[in-house]
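pinned: reference chain
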Amino acid sequence: FQVGDVVFHTSNSSQSRAIQLATDSKFSHVGMVVLHQGKLMMLEAVQPVKLTPINEFVARGTNGNYVVKKLKPGFRPFSDEKIAELERFYTPLLGKDYDIYFNWSEKELYCSELVWKVYKEVLGIELSQPKPLKSYHLDHPLVKEQMKARYGENLPLNEVMVSPQDLFESTFLQ
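pinned: its structure tokens
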């Protein structure tokens, strides 16, 4: 593992299957490797946003399976200066609540939003293009059930978001 690695897995959360169905993905959770006090850790948005030992993060994935993606050659990696900037950026985010509504704000954060915003802020890279909720697959009964429980009848169809799959498909990562 290296700073900046993006790690994907399928979580065992109650919303995991709905995320997979809506985003046509085998993944439902994502985190990013950061350096904290000399140790590599996973930065992730769960409840709350926190640093997690890498072995704990990957063990939480279904059957312990995970995929690591790295910046493609040719893109500037996380230099010592960028690693320090990364820590300055994420430290104030620690402890923020998990965003169950997937809003595009810094008040609360969800997993793929956190990774996307870190890359954008620290390296100036937009790993994917945020897109409106209505562009995902929302017709499956489980997806409908989860969305109705969260939003009632007022679905935020134009709210932009990024999914773990959007990051997985990033042309910046391999």
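why pinned: The chain has a mean pLDDT of 95. The beta strands are 6-9, 29-36, 39-45, 49-53, 67-69, 131-132, 160-161.
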